[in-house]
Every structure is written in structure tokens, then in C-alpha cells.
Amino acid sequence: MGFDIQNVRGNFPILRRKVYEKQLVYLDNAATTQKPDMVIDRLNNFYSYENSNVHRGIHHLSQEATACFEEARDYVQKFLNAHSRNEIIFTRGTTESINLVAQSFGRKFINPGDEVLISQMEHHSNIVPWQMICEERGARLLVVPITESAELNMKAFEKMLSDKTRIVAITHVSNTLGTINPVDIIVKLAHRVGARVLIDGAQAIAHLPIDLQNLDCDFYCFSGHKVYGPTGIGVLYGKVELLEEMLPYQCGGEMISEVTFEKTTFNELPYKFEAGTPNIAGALGLHSALLYLDRLGIRQAAAHEDEVFKYALDKLGQIDQIIIYSRAQHKTTSLSFNLKGVHPYDVGSIIDKFAVAVRTGHLCTQPLTRIFQVPGFVRASFAVYNTTEEVDIFINAVIQAKSMLMS
Ligand code: PMP
Fold it and tell me: What is the structure's pLDDT at 57?
């Protein structure tokens, strides 16, 4: 499959639909991406002809479903270049993955007086789980500030690291600012003081090639629905030596080895962390989504997205009275902005009438709204199927919103 944008668009049936009798322009990809035929067909086929529970059945269908489910795990391992398939745990998504680490790692390794480092640009799902576990364990949550140019303040980060730091939990790419954080440097600096590192890859997975053996972080997580896969499926990668020491986060079927009323022993990795019937169809759909992206070529896809993103940044920047928050030198596909003094909901609702889907509000980063002293943001976020023609429609919608709201 070479990279041909019209071909790519043809793979996504939803892009053919109309909204308000106009062609849909979908620019809410940081919230969730659309799904190609390959993923939709995979789900359809599973439920039509293959549906069965995994791991427990002796019968043919169950064995087939188990094989497909485990092949999906193998593919994720390969996609991330993880060392072992036992390091790949299927979860409901990024949120569940972070909660799993906060609870299981936290209860084992975070003690009174310890510190957990996050940053000002984290999504709520990489803030609240750490707040909760810090409170429970008597630890301190430290927040690394960002700079004027919407980048992590690396000097402050280095200063905040100490032998008290148990874990650093940082987003790879900010869903609001688009900033790509220097995660390789963060991992090296954190490891120097003996801290572990969790990277929230929710906004990176569709846009940046990931090589976990090279990156050497301790945990990495993402959601399937942000990378052209289904909702309700995601991944937690964790280093085997850590996962081995952590206790399960949820308990029930699948995660046990032997149960008596007196004592339970746990299953081996990765099943120890996969209690209950998993999202089987979701895992198969995720496999297809990653396969789809691999066939397109993630670098080619990213190069196309970058072109569209830069075009949008440039065009938006030419409108006066616009404040752009996506200012980092290294950034990708999330473009947040406001019309000076205008509420983002007002802007978003006018843009919507042009059949352009953008997101408005705090974007699950309320602390950032306080830092920038705004009620929220308008965010356009791009995926592999977006075009510069769509950007033109979006820009026209912004100009119309401006003339209605600011004249
Ligand atoms: N982290 C980041 C950076 C995100 O953008 C999101 C989703 N907006 C999440 C975490 C949470 O992902 P999910 O809702 O799929 O669990």
C-alpha cells in the first residue's frame, strides 16, 4: 500500500457522510480517530463467524479466538518493539493502564515521604490516579512546570528529581498543546536517580514510531481508539521484572493459577493483570488497526499529517486576534487556539455548523486552562486522512466565527 491520500480516505467510510448536508470535516482526532474498513470488517467477522470466549475452551471456536487474541498481543509487541509478549497487557485504554500502574506499582513501591513527578500538561487521567495513590501512601505529588513556549521546563524537572522520586509519569505528546516531550532524556535522567518512568502514549501512538527497547521506559500505555482501532481496548506495556513484583489490580477469572477459600495464587504474566473476559473483538480490531498503519507506513503517515498540520498552523496564524497555544518547537497534530476574549464554546458551535468537527473545552487538562487563564480551548487535531482542502474549510469557518462574534 503506497501513500495515496484519496485511497486512504476511501478506507474510512465515515468520511463519506454528510453533516448539515455538507461534507463532514473531521478534526477531532485527538479525542478519537475514525476507523478504516479493515477494522470494521474485523469486528464484523469476529462477531459473525468467530465469536467465542478465550483461554477457557477446549472447543474449536474458543481455540481459534484464543489464537487470534494472542496473535494480536504478538503484533502489539512487535509494533512497540517490546522485549517480550509477557510485557503486553490488554486494558480498556490509557486510563485503565495508568490506574493499574498507580494502584499496583503504588501499593508496592510508593511509601510515606516518597515523591511522584507529573507535569502541568498532563491529561486528567495522568493526574488523578497519582493524586489518589499519593494520598493513600502518604507520598508527595510534584508537578513539573511548562515554559512560555508550551514545553516541559527541563531545568526544573532535573531539579525536582531526587532519590525520593519513585516514579515519573509524563505524557509523550500533549493532547492540548501538541508538544512532543523529550521522553528519551526524561527516562535517562529519571533512571539516574533510580526512579521509574511511565509514558502516556495516548497521543503519540498514531503519529510517532515507538521503540520501547530503545526508549527503555518502565511503563508505556495507549488506547486503541486513538490509533484507528476500537474503543474499550488499550495496552499497558511494563517491564517484566516490575510486573512480576506488582500485585494484580483487579481480581477474578483468568488472572488466577489456583483458588481455594484460604488462598489464591496468581497466573503468570501477562494474564495476572487481565482479570475477567477481555475485549476480544477489541484486541482483534486493534491488531487490524496497527496492521493498517504499518502497511501505510507510520513515517509516511506522519509526514503527511505534519504537512497538513503545518499548513493549518500557518493559515490560522494569519488570522488576527487568534491566540495559538500549540507553540512548542517539536509538536504534532493538536492545534489549540482561542479567539481573543471569545468563549471557545461559541467558536466551536459556529465551526460545527460548517460540518467541521473540532473539540472545545478544558480538553481534560483543566490545570492548563488555569495556567493560560482561559475558560477552555478550541482544538483541531489531525489524522492521516485529513487534507489541506479540509483545512481551508476549517479556516473559513474560523473566519466566519470571528466575524460573527467579534464584529
Ligand atoms: N492521556 C492523553 C494524553 C489523552 O489524550 C487521553 C485521551 N484524550 C487519555 C490519556 C485518556 O485516554 P482514554 O480516554 O482512551 O483512556
Answer: 79
Ligand 1 centroid–CA 280 distance in Å is: 21
- What's the rounded Cα separation, in Å, for the pair 345 and 212? 39
Q: What is the pLDDT of residue 172?
A: 98
Active site residues: 364
**Could you tell me if 291 and 78 are in contact, meaning their C-beta atoms sit under 8 angstroms apart?**
no
Helices (H), 216-327: 240-245, 280-296, 298-317
Query: Which pLDDT tens digit goes with each residue over 53-99?
Result: 998 779 999 999 999 999 999 999 999 999 999 999 999 999 999 99
Give yes or no for residue 171 CB within 6 A of ligand 1: yes
Q: Is the pLDDT of residue 2 over 60?
A: no
> Across the strands, what pairs with 84?
none
Residue among 132, 131, 210 nearest 172 (CA): 210
Using DSSP bridges, classify how beta strands 88-91 and 22-23 pair: parallel, antiparallel or unpaired.
unpaired
Side chain identity at residue 388, one-letter code: T
Residue 94 CA: which ligand 1 atom is closest? 16
Cell 468467530 sits on residue: 50
Please name each of the domains of the chain with its CATH number.
Answer: 5-30+297-405 (3.90.1150.10), 40-294 (3.40.640.10)
CA atoms of 401 and 404, how far apart (whole Å):
5
Model pLDDT for residues 225-254, shown as the tens digit of each residue: 999 999 999 999 999 999 999 999 999 988
Write out the E strands in 85-226. Answer: 88-91, 115-119, 140-144, 165-171, 196-200, 219-223
154 pLDDT above the threshold of 90: yes
Alpha carbons within 13 A on the beta-carbon side of 336: 28
Check residue 331 and report its DSSP letter.
B
* pLDDT tens, position by position, 349-385: 999 999 999 999 999 999 999 999 999 999 999 999 9
Whether 327 and 150 have beta carbons less than 8 Å apart is answered as: yes
Beta bridge partners of 18: 23
* Closest ligand 1 atom to 92 CA: 16
d(CA 398, CA 81): 41
The preferred substitution site among 130, 170, 364, 381 for testing ligand 1, maximizing ligand atoms within 8 Å of CB, is: 364
Q: Ligand 1 pocket, 334 CB below 6 A?
A: no
